[in-house]
Amino acid sequence: MSALLTNLTHWKSLESHFGEIKNVQLKDLFEKDGTRGERFVLKVSDIYFDYSKHRITEETLSLLLGLAEERGLEARRAAMFSGEKINSTENRAVLHTALRAPKGATVLVDGHNVVPDVHAVLEKMTEFSNQVRSGAWKGHTGKSIKYVVNIGIGGSDLGPVMAYEALKHFSQRNLSFRFVSNVDGNDFAEAVEGISAEETLFIISSKTFTTLETMTNAQTARTWLLEQLGGDASAVAKHFVAVSTNGEAVSKFGIDTQNMFGFWDWVGGRYSMSSAIGLSTMLAIGSEHYYEMLAGLHEMDEHFRTAPLNENIPVIMGMLGIWYADFFGVQTQAIFPYENYLKRFPAYLQQLTMESNGKHVTLEGENVGYQTGVVYWGEPGTNGQHSFYQLVHQGTLLIPCDFIGFKKPLNVLPPHQDYLIANMIAQGEALAFGKTAEAVKAEGVADNLVAHKVFEGNRPSSTFFIDQLNPKNLGKLIAMYEHCVFVQSVIWDINPFDQMGVELGKVLAQNIIPELQDTSKVLQHDSSTNALIEYYRS
Ligand code: F6P
Predict the structure, then answer these.
(1) Residue 368: phi, psi to the nearest 5?
(2) Ligand 1 within 6 A of 270 CB?
(3) Rounded to an integer, what distance in angstroms lies between the CA atom of residue 290 and that of residue 15?
(4) pLDDT of 88 strictly over 70
(5) By the 8 A CB rule, do 416 and 409 touch?
(6) Which of 97, 383, 439, 143 is nearest to 268 (CA)?
(7) Would you state the torsion angle of the CA atoms of residues 305, 307, 308, 313, taken in this order, to the nearest 10 degrees?
(8) What are the tens digits of pLDDT across the range 238-284?
(9) Is the pLDDT reported for residue 97 higher than 80?
C-alpha cells in the first residue's frame, strides 16, 4: 500500500515552497536570469521543448522530481514496460508500448512473448492495405474500393480520426475516408451520403464488439449495403472487416474472422491507435508511413523509459501538471496546436487524459483527498486567438497552455508559415510577460481604458517546437502525452487504465430505451427523469 501523497516529504516541501513561489512573476524570473529561456529546455530528437515560461525555479523542479522519485515513478514505469498487471482493477498488463516494439524485441505477458503476435497482425494489415490501396481488393460487384468508413467510438474512433486528419498530407487521395461514431443516425447518414456501396469498405472497430453505438452503426451499415447490393449476404465479406479483441462477437455479427484484425486485452481503448485500430490510418497513409509512425512512438517510449527524470519530457510535463493542479488549484490545460492538420488532436487528448486520470479514488479505493485530472481542451491556432484566447489572457482563471508548432510547413505557401509561427511565439510571450498599466499609459490610452488594456501576464505555457509534422513525429507526440498521463497517475496513485465512470450512464440508457419504445411502461424514475421521458413520448 503506497503512502498518502500528502504525507510525502517532497509534497510537504512543495507546499511550503509554493508559498514562496505563488506570487513570483515570470517577468522577474527572466530578468534575474538571462539564460533561463535556454536552460529550461529539452531537445529530444526532433522535439524542442521549452518549459521556461512556467512558474517554477530550479528548486521547484528539483522538488517535483524528488516527489516523482519518492513516489516510485521509476519502479512503476519499469513495471508497465515489463508487462506487470498494473491495471489492477481489471487485472491486466498495460502494454501499448509493445505495439510499437521492434520485431526482434521480447515483451512477456504471462510468460508469452507478445511481440511476434503484434508483428503478425501488422503484416496482415500491410497485406490488406496494399490490396485495397492498389485496387486489387474487389468489392462484391468487382469494383475497387474508393470509400473507407471506420465505424467506432472513443478510442476506436478518436485516434484514427486524429491520425487521419494529422497525416492527410501523406494520404492516398483517391481513397476517401469517413468516420462514424455517434449513435445519432445523422452521423451515419451523412457519412454515406453520395457514396456507392459497391466501392465502400466498412471497418468495424471495437475492442469489445459490444458497444451500443458501434454495433448499431454496424447493423445500419450492413442493412444499407445489402439494400444497395440486392440483398445478397455474401457481399458482407467483401465490404466489411473488423478490428477487435472479440473474435466470437465478430463472427456472430457475420464478419468472417479471416477479415478480422485482432488485438489484446492489454491494450486500453484510448491507448489503441497503434494497434489494429490504426487500420484506417494504414489504409490512408500506407504501411511504410505507418511503420514510421510506430517508430516515432517507440522512440518516445524509449526516451521515457530510459532518460533520467530531469531530462525526460513526459516526466517534466507530467510534474508541471501536478504543480499546477495540486498547488495552484488549476483545473484546465489548454492544447493549442499551431498546425491545422492537428485539428482533432485536442479531442483525441481529451479521452486520453480525462478518461485516464478522471479518478477520485486511489488504487486501494480510498478517496484521494487532492485534485487529480484536469480538463483538457483546445483548438488550433490561430483560430482560437479570435475566440477564447481573451479569457486565457485576461480572464480570472489560470490556464497553462501547450503550444505545438512545426518549423517546416507541409504546404509551402509564403508568407503563411511565418505568420503562423510568429503568432504562436507571440502568444507565449504575451501570456508570460503581459503589459503593464505604465506601458499602456505610455501609448496615450485614455485613463478610463487603461485597466481594460492591461495584461497581467504570469500565465504559464510550454512550447513544443518540432521539425515537421510527419508520421514519425506524430508518433512521438502521441507517446509523449500518453506517458505524461501515466506519470501523473503514478503521483496521484490512481489507475489511469480503467474507465468505470462511463458505465452508469450506459446502464441507465439501457433501462430507458424500452421505456421510450413502449409507452405503456410505467415510469419509476425521479420526477425530472419521468417528465423528460413523458415529454419525448408525447
Ligand atoms: O465507453 C468508453 C469506452 O469503453 C472507451 O474506453 C473505449 O475507447 C470506447 O468505449 C469504445 O469501446 P470499444 O472499442 O470496445 O467499442
Answers:
(1) -65, -45
(2) yes
(3) 45
(4) yes
(5) yes
(6) 97
(7) -90
(8) 999 999 999 999 999 989 889 999 999 999 999 999 999 999 999 99
(9) yes
Q: Which atom of ligand 1 is nearest to the CA of 155?
A: 8
Q: How would you label 82-93 residue by residue, b for 16+ Cβ within 10 Å and e otherwise?
A: ebbebbeeeebb
Looking from the CA of residue 277, the nearest atom of ligand 1 is 14
Mean pLDDT score, 371-380 = 98
| Closest C-alpha to ligand 1, atom 6 | 269
Q: How many CB atoms lie within 10 A of CB 340?
A: 17
406 vs 43, 58, 115, 342, 466, CA distance in Å? 14, 28, 33, 11, 5
Residue type, 145: I
Binding site membership of 154 for ligand 1 (Cβ less than 6 Å): yes
Nearest to 384 by CA among 340, 324, 349, 450: 340
Choose which residue among 211, 272, 507 to substitute to test ligand 1 binding: the one with the highest number of ligand atoms within 8 A of its C-beta: 211
- What pLDDT score does 467 carry? 98
Residues with catalytic roles:
355, 386, 506
2 has pLDDT over 90: no
pLDDT tens digits for range 5-53: 999 999 999 999 999 999 999 999 999 999 999 999 999 999 999 999 9
Q: 538571462: which residue's cell? A: 34
* Complete DSSP assignment for 83-129: T---BTTTTB---GGGGG--TT---EETTEE-HHHHHHHHHHHHHHH
CA of 267 to the centre of ligand 1 (A): 12
> Is 234 a residue whose pLDDT tops 90?
yes
CA of 260 to the centre of ligand 1 (A): 18
